[in-house]
Amino acid sequence: MIVFEQVSKRFGDLQVLDGVDLHIPANKITFLIGRSGEGKSVTIKHMIGLMKPDSGEIYVDGKRLSALQSDKELREHRKKFGLLFQHSALFDNMDVLNNVCFPIRELEPDLPDTIVEQRAIDCLSKVEMNKMLDRFPNELSTGEKKRAGLARALASEPKILLYDEPTTGIDPLLCETVDRLIVKINNDSPSVSSVVISHDIKAALAIAEKIIMLHHGKVILAGDAETFRRSDNPVVRQFLSGKISQASAF
Amino acid sequence: MLTRTKALVDRFFVLNVGYVGRLAIYLYTQALEFFYPLRINRIVEQLESVGFKSIGIILLTGVSVGMTFGVQVGAIYSIFGVESLIGSTTGLALAVEIAPLTTAFLVAGYYGSSTTAELAAMKISEQLDAMEAMGVSLLNYFVKPTVIATVLAMPMLYFYFMLMGFLGAYIVGVEMFDISFGNFYVWLKRYVWVEDIVKGAVKSTVFGLVVALVSCSFGLRATGGARGIGLTTSNSVVVNLLAILVADVFITYFQMKRAGL
Ligand SMILES: Nc1ncnc2c1ncn2[C@@H]1O[C@H](COP(=O)(O)OP(=O)(O)O)[C@@H](O)[C@H]1O
Ligand SMILES: [Mg+2]
Q1: A110 is in which domain, residue-wise?
Q2: Is there a domain that residue A148 lies in?
Q3: Residue A18 domain-assigned?
Q4: pTM score, whole prediction
């Protein structure tokens, strides 16, 4: 469904992606793992068209992104996605409720306000944030921000959900809730595909249907949990044993 | 020969009418594109922050500029016994130059800078990315409402500034130089024409466009952390002021030329 062919991206002297080939299957949960700063966030920004590759091609649903001509086509492309940002990126001039209403209003401007708000509240209750509707982002903890951001990503009922480190910085109990939620959302609607960036290798092995590992700008291993458990690649083994994932959690 | 000429003429017309037609269609679609998803509520929001919030500042600045200028001019005029001309001199200077320029500087200072800082903060915390990811066009959401609001508000603020300046000059004239209201008004009216006010308003409109475009483009391009926001904002203000001054030189030149001077 999402295909990268030899995608490269550099920022100044830093070659972040160096010929990435990857394939993200439809209707499944795919985990994207790798150390901090390996370009995982950059990778999902490429999927949504927020960044353009220096070279290589990206296909989403068979459409080549570089062929999207007008702003309008690009906007249509982006509407397929719901994106949870690593640092939540809530609009800090709006309260939680209006943050979640925003994408719904953008997508369906003619929907009556009561329905918009009801849908937003439904999304917020999924992440147990329905008691904080009128809080502003600066009044929320990191975990609360993340949950509100998650509700906002779900609000427009997108086909493809991109989660950028949904569980980093929230407590273990809530981590489990979020992981369960990711599975539930993916299974509830058969046409939804999920891409999760995570450091939580346990969660990846438990719920991912496909895992892709980035290292030094390339994909070093892609496959299901078994492939990873059996791999004898030293970098993968190190990551699995948790040594690096501990050190690079931030 | 004749047919060839006719063919050429036909060709000329077809080409040019075709060109003009295409141009017209292009401009029309561009105009539609510009105005279609017009976010009225965003424009109102921006008008509020550029317009209503400045009423106090402009009152103070306008009156004090009018008074200072009135005193300076009056001091010289009283030597020649023509104090009653204070109104006309101050008025003309205010209408064509001081009011448009000072208003634009004020707007660049309080509205332009806050627009840049807000956009820069949103950019750095990925809020702008989040909007784009939702398919929102930043052009429609931020740039157009800001442009429309400043272009509408600036001439009105100019007019208001000018009136406050007249008031300041009048206060000085009456209190320090013993001019009567009638005298002040007659000379003001004789030398400050509607044309001058139109000139000032045209300048203000252009300045409004300048402030909106400069402030938005700096904000949308910001990089770095808190330091980045500070740096971007101060650069934006400096460029705003310079751009206003440069625009002022050009507009004044064209306005003078048109008047045959
Ligand atoms: N817009 C940008 N400009 C310059 N450098 C960037 C930009 N975005 C990311 N980078 C750099 O690219 C590298 C990968 O970033 P990122 O994808 O965020 O890593 P992660 O895998 O932790 O999500 C980092 O070194 C980061 O500093
Ligand atoms: Mg990241």
Answers
A1: 86-158
A2: yes
A3: no
A4: 0.85
